[in-house]
Amino acid sequence: MSWIEKDNKLQKTFTFKDFSEAFAFMTRVAFLAEQHQHHPNWSNVWNTVEIHLTTHDAGNTVTEKDKNLAEAIDQLLD
User: Is the pTM here over 0.90, yes or no?
Assistant: First the structure.
């Protein structure tokens, strides 16, 4: 599933085998977000991680920062 642009956010849901895999993914995304200095809005319920990206200092719209981080997140799973 690719990222969906909706309500001025890039959104994607990731599903894993279990909570441990989901949490490990979130940890990798956290380090990536620090490198990009751009942080997601996200949630985790058991094996599912939902990520929403928007640029707050650009009026809560989707910018290149969001697109670049989304691409980098996807590369974590390649």
Answer: yes
